[in-house]
């Protein structure tokens, strides 16, 4: 017995329920003599009769209405082609297993196939399913599925039909930020910036600024070495196919089961319309359900950042987080009498974004390495690197004013296309702009490493300029002090130079001895009004000061000379000579 279109696929769009032309067949169907409505479909209409009906109907319409009708028909045809393509992909038999499972970061037991479209349930929230184009999600089994057109499936559904599109340097076609009010696009500045970013060259293997690695590297230690050395040189790192991508569909049920993000979770929603009008106040209060249900709202572009979750770095890359290690290994000798769950719980976070969202150039003010990997959807992240003029000085002034005119002339720039399953790691203070052409679910976090502390110093130096900093940094100082206090107990191979180079070591000494110098403007005027802030009464601060003072004595460096020495170290790529501390810190290890 033949099944109707609705029986074959209960999620069939409305425009497929009518005028469906069944292919002719020579087989005799049991239902051939039955009326069409008995089978669940309308009787097929010949193409000639359709054209004749359209001609008669359009004669009655004015030119504007006629054009609008034809545009709507074209949009329906695009959706029909997209749905048929997705249906064919879902009908294919599952792939045997991931070819990278036995060799890469991916778990050996991991085999990923697209999840079927979810049936409707009694729960209206959980049954709200948003289908992403098949080409917008990277399949771990078939990287060739990555298509370039990310716009067609969104026009007329998630964004207005008249939304402009742009082609990026790597060939991707995306929508431009668009919210129409009284016939005008109120996101015109975001649109212009997105066009600038689209013209930036795409990052490729062999790039001077970005290290491209494969998640299928068999030796995990080699992967860690490559990541550490690249970050220390100020380069970003992208590990392709490093983690499992998510399903094709984004639902509240997936957010709840995978990340514990509930529909009623209160969140601060960034609204691009408010951001265009009041850049300092772009938030609207709401719950996560509001953002998910608004994906198909053509009158908004919104996103949520910093949803705390318990999913951090992939287990194989956890050794990169040497700041966390410093906490664990110093808590006995340097007790922390106050509650400090934030240092652990606030680092991993998830972000959820609707399509067409632009985040202008920015940097993380706490001076940590940042990692990021999308689970659903593609992100185009433009990385900005200050050009070094002839005098060798990095143009920090250009960095300070990057956010207003968005002038990219003083920067070398590359755009990295981050697919689901790719892992992007940025060194401290990395300037970047983000564009989410389609709805994106991603998560990431931050970590410290000894080799990048010079970049931490440079990043925090930017933040002391006039202006308010919204990120509390007391935990940053405490972590740096514990990293300094841990140096006497580092393995001997590290003390002999595998990680302690001149630039990061001197930067750590400077940040330990003068913590107030690197505090953000808002923190200097609030939490540090007292003569003795709580942070400076930490036992780790006392130990860290003693350790770095001993190191400077061993190197015959006066603490007052540190700022000038760091200012003269202008090359971001050179870590400086290896520092051999020998046994100068042996007096601190007598308790071990």
From TrEMBL:
Q: Which domain of life is it from?
A: Eukaryota
Q: Where is the composition biased (Basic and acidic residues)?
A: 46-72
Q: Report biased composition (Polar residues) as residue ranges.
A: 22-31
Q: Where is the composition biased (Basic residues)?
A: 76-86
Show the segment(s) annotated as Disordered: 1-99
Supply the name of the protein: JmjC domain-containing protein
Annotated organism of origin = Suillus fuscotomentosus
Lineage summary: Eukaryota, Fungi, Dikarya, Basidiomycota, Agaricomycotina
């Amino acid at each position: 017995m033949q099944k109707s279109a609705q029986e074959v696929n209960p999620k069939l769009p409305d425009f497929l329920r009518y005028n469906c032309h069944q292919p002719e067949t020579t087989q005799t169907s049991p239902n051939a003599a039955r009326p069409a409505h008995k089978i669940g479909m309308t009787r097929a209409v010949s193409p000639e009769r359709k054209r004749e009906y359209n001609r008669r109907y359009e004669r009655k319409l004015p030119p504007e209405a006629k054009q609008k009708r034809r545009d709507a028909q074209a949009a329906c045809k695009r959706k029909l082609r997209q749905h048929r393509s997705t249906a064919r992909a879902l009908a294919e038999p599952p792939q045997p297993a991931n070819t990278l499972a036995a060799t890469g970061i991916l778990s050996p037991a991991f085999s990923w196939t697209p999840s079927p479209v979810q049936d409707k349930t009694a729960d209206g929230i959980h049954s709200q399913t948003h289908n992403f184009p098949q080409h917008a999600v990277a399949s771990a089994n078939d990287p060739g599925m990555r298509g370039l057109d990310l716009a067609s499936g969104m026009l007329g559904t998630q964004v207005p039909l008249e939304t402009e599109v742009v082609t990026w340097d790597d060939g991707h076609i995306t929508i431009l930020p668009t919210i129409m009010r009284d016939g005008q696009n109120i996101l015109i500045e975001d649109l212009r910036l997105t066009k600038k970013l689209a013209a930036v060259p795409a990052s490729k293997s062999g790039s001077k600024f970005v290290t491209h690695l494969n998640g299928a590297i068999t030796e995990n230690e080699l992967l860690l070495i490559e990541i550490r050395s690249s970050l220390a040189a100020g380069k970003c790192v992208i590990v392709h196919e490093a983690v499992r991508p998510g399903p094709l569909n984004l639902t509240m049920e997936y957010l709840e089961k995978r990340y514990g993000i509930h529909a009623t979770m209160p969140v601060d929603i960034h609204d691009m319309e408010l951001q265009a009008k009041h850049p300092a106040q772009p938030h609207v209060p709401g719950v996560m359900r509001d953002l998910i249900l608004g994906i198909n709202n053509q009158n908004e572009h919104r996103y949520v950042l910093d949803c705390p979750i318990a999913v951090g770095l992939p287990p194989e890359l956890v050794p990169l987080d040497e700041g966390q290690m410093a906490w664990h290994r110093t808590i006995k000798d340097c007790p922390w009498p106050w509650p400090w769950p934030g240092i652990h719980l606030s680092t991993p976070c998830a972000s959820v974004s609707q399509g067409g969202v632009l985040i202008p150039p920015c940097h993380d003010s706490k001076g940590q390495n940042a990692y990021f990997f999308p689970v659903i959807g593609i992100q185009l992240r433009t990385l900005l690197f200050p050009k070094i003029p002839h005098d060798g000085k990095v143009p920090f002034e250009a960095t300070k004013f990057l956010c207003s005119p968005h002038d990219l002339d003083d920067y070398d720039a590359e755009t990295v296309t981050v697919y689901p399953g790719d892992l992007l790691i940025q060194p401290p203070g990395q300037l970047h702009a983000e564009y989410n052409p389609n709805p994106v679910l991603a998560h990431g976090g931050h970590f410290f490493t000894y080799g990048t502390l010079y970049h931490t110093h440079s990043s925090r130096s930017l933040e002391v300029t006039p202006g308010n900093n919204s990120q509390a940094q007391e935990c940053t100082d405490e972590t740096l002090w514990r990293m300094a206090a841990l140096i006497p107990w580092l393995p001997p191979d590290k003390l002999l130079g595998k990680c302690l180079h001149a630039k990061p070591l001197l930067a750590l000494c400077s940040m330990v001895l003068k913590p107030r110098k690197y505090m953000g403007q808002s923190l200097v005027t609030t939490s540090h009004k007292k003569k003795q802030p709580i942070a400076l009464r930490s036992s780790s601060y006392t130990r860290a000061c003693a350790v770095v003072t001993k190191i400077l004595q061993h190197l015959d460096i006066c603490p007052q000379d540190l700022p000038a020495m760091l200012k003269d170290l202008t090359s971001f790529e050179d870590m400086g000579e290896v520092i051999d501390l020998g046994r100068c810190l042996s007096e601190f290890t007598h308790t071990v």
